Amino acid sequence: MSPDQQKELKKLKDGATAALTRAAQRARELARQTGTKIVLTRDGKLVKETPADEKKSESA
What we know:
two-stranded antiparallel ribbon
């Protein structure tokens, strides 16, 4: 793979990572607003959790 292709691939990966991070943040925000739980994996198992309060998350 050429250096230009590697650079382009890194840009795509970084963009995808940022988009997924924004989507997860938005999902947590929406769940907090609506009082619903989010589903995530913990130790390889699916779990439902109430999203943490945003201020608590920032301090942790």
